[in-house]
Amino acid sequence: MNYLPIIGIEIHVQLRTKTKMFCGCSASIWKAEPNTHVCPVCLGLPGALPVMNKKAIGQVIKMGLALDCEINHSTYFERKNYFYPDLPKGYQISQHRAPLCINGQLSVDDTLIRISDVHLEEDTGKSVHKKGATDNQESATRGNYSLLDFNKSGIPLMEIVSAPDIYSADQAVKYCKSIQQIVRSLNISDADIEKGQMRFEVNISLREVKDEELPNYRVEIKNLNSFKFVKKVIEYETKRQTKAFEQGKKLIQETRGFDEDKEITVSQREKEAAHDYRYFPEPDLPPLEISETEIEKLKNEIPELPYQAIERLVNAGLKAKDAEIIVQKQKVDYLDNCVIAGFNIKEASLVIIHKPNLTSRYGPQDLRNHLQGKRESVVEDTNKLESIIIKVITENPKTVRDFQTGKEKSLQFLIGQVMKETKGKANPRKTSVLLQKHLT
Questions:
Q1: pTM (predicted TM-score)
Q2: Cβ neighbours of residue 189 under 8 Å, at least 6 residues apart?
Q3: Which of 146, 161, 381, 431 could make a disulfide contact with 116, Cβ separation 3.0–4.6 Å?
Q4: Is 9 helix (H, G, I), strand (E, B) or coil?
């Protein structure tokens, strides 16, 4: 029996703001000492009241507009109630019933993936799990233990929720990468996965290929921190769930974790439903009213989006693959400035793709001057080049004989020797023509 994976993905992105979502603590927490960016609001102390970060709200609306979402003019924050040590209040301020953005879409490889919603919440703290000393070791700590760092608590966190419109691991990875590119182009986050600024949760279930209805269960795998792990989790779960069905087992709604060392998923708990979190409106924050004027203002601030840039570059003469690489490298502006500086767009794209060291050292105009200088120093003088070629032929009699007896690869060796003699400044095409003239 053939089964098709049905996949939905929740992507969490830490937004780029100076302060946290509901307090004035600095949001620049990377490599900071634990618990140095905290206050009574972050720590959930009695009497501490939240105040909304307006910039973060605008950033989420921009993302919604980029994903062709409807913007909720009337919205509010809610309390999502659950217990975990890194959640000091005993609840997370989030959105459930009235997200900022709803009903969007994103095209990936000509497949339209629906976006259920884009909403805003606060991040939780961080649990650091440690192994304690054994009975044979000198230490005040016995057994395993956990430490808590609340620097991350309260960082503005955008969540992008897709519909179950993804059907393969490769498509899932491309979708995640597309979201990352859009976030970066909007300049609302670095979306640096290594810094924990972008995390993934995969929901996956299987149905028979011939069926059309969604399965009556889904398995959620939380806290994935790389594109590679997203791919491995989907591939593993597809095999695991297929095997379970073939053995006549019934799959349940559950949350699983990913064991990175063994590259398997492990059951953690049965999946909660929305009512388990007992959502209710946050009493300490007023409802939000977002005007059409504010939405238009944010819309006008949206730059060229990745898919738009790729389409424009292809129309300008680039191959689709090269255009995608330029966008992935975030070098579209650099390429445009190269063209302004007098580059041919194809030539500029090749330099950006294949010689990134040059583009990191030179601005577009300086790069043009640098390459122009190199061209002018190319050995074009025929007499000078021929004298070098005669020297190379004289010093490599065996290679010359090999070429003359039909071993055409020998010519490439001789060209290489000429390039070596000229420190790479000889014109390769002219060198080849002159070499063959002297060899025949």
A1: 0.81
A2: 13, 14, 15, 16, 59, 158, 183, 197, 198
A3: 161
A4: strand
The answer to whether residues 136 and 255 belong to one domain is yes
Rounded to whole angstroms, the Cα distance separating 265 from 257 reads 5
pLDDT of 388-400, one tens digit each?
A: 888 888 888 888 8
Using alpha carbons only, what angle is made at residue 107 by residues 105 and 113, rounded to the nearest 5 degrees? Answer: 50
The stretches of 46-137 forming alpha helices (DSSP H) are 54-66
* pLDDT attached to residue 402: 83
CATH number, domain of 432, equals 1.10.10.410
Identify whether the C-beta of residue 22 lies closer than 8 Å to the C-beta of residue 223.
Answer: no
E-strand spans in 214-350?
Answer: 219-224, 254-259, 264-270, 280-281, 288-289
Amino acid at the residue 62: K
**Do the Cβ atoms of 202 and 220 come closer than 8 Å?**
yes
Domain co-membership, 68 together with 14: yes
pLDDT tens digits, one per residue of 123-144 = 999 998 887 766 555 555 567 8
Q: Are 119 and 60 in contact (CB under 8 A)?
A: yes
Write down which residue in 376, 391, 412 finishes a domain.
376
pLDDT score of 412: 77
Which positions of the chain have pLDDT values less than 70? Answer: 133-142, 372-380, 424, 428
Domain count across the chain: 3
DSSP label at residue 431:
H
Tell me: do 141 and 273 sit in the same domain. yes
